[in-house]
Amino acid sequence: MSRIGRKPIAVPAGVDVKIDGSTVTVKGPKGTLTQTFRPEIGIKFENSEILVTRPNDEKMEKSLHGLTRTLIANMVHGVTEEFKKELEINGVGYRAAKQGKQLVMTLGFSHQVFMEDTADVTIDVPAPNKIIVHGPDKQKVGQFAAEIREKRPPEPYKGKGIKYVDEVIIRKEGKAGKGKK
């Protein structure tokens, strides 16, 4: 049986959970998240815990069991603490700034790159070379951070570009190091 799927999800005080068939709505201090799951998976809310059950041990139900439990746990975590991704900009003249609800990045192009805050995701720029993306929905935060990184991914020779703070860029030797052994 799924070890992850069997584990109950503790719902902290201040978080409101509403289950309507296979649709789960979680409301907390950081926002409201709603998601519809497959109808085969049973979801119950009792004694300030959410329990996820499956009808049988078929392969599809087994895989959906743990997935559903993890997605609901992420929803509960997101509306209480929010998820965040930190990005770092490396390179001479590369920088970011916040103008109202827009992120303005200078990334070595002939033009500046603009990205707009969305309703679900907020951007902070504590330093010119650091960007913090945060919000209650884990998937949307990760996707938005990936879209920012995509504007100028780090290159392997000098490491210039936008990278995640915990990402390690594997460096390559240039042309000058080819003949040395």
TrEMBL record:
Pfam families assigned to the protein according to its UniProt record, in alphabetical order: Ribosomal_L6 (PF00347)
SUPFAM superfamilies: Ribosomal protein L6
Domain Large ribosomal subunit protein uL6 alpha-beta per the UniProt entry, residue ranges: 11-81, 91-164
GO molecular function: rRNA binding; structural constituent of ribosome
GO BP term (any one): cytoplasmic translation
Protein keywords: Ribonucleoprotein, Ribosomal protein, RNA-binding, rRNA-binding
Gene Ontology CC terms, in alphabetical order: cytosolic large ribosomal subunit
Role: This protein binds to the 23S rRNA, and is important in its secondary structure. It is located near the subunit interface in the base of the L7/L12 stalk, and near the tRNA binding site of the peptidyltransferase center.
Family designation: Belongs to the universal ribosomal protein uL6 family.
HAMAP family (alphabetical): Ribosomal_uL6_B (MF_01365_B)
PANTHER family named in the record: 60S/50S RIBOSOMAL PROTEIN L6/L9 (PTHR11655), LARGE RIBOSOMAL SUBUNIT PROTEIN UL6M (PTHR11655:SF14)
Oligomer status and interactors: Part of the 50S ribosomal subunit.
Record's protein name: Large ribosomal subunit protein uL6
Organism encoding this protein: Anaerotruncus colihominis DSM 17241
Name of the gene this protein is made from: rplF
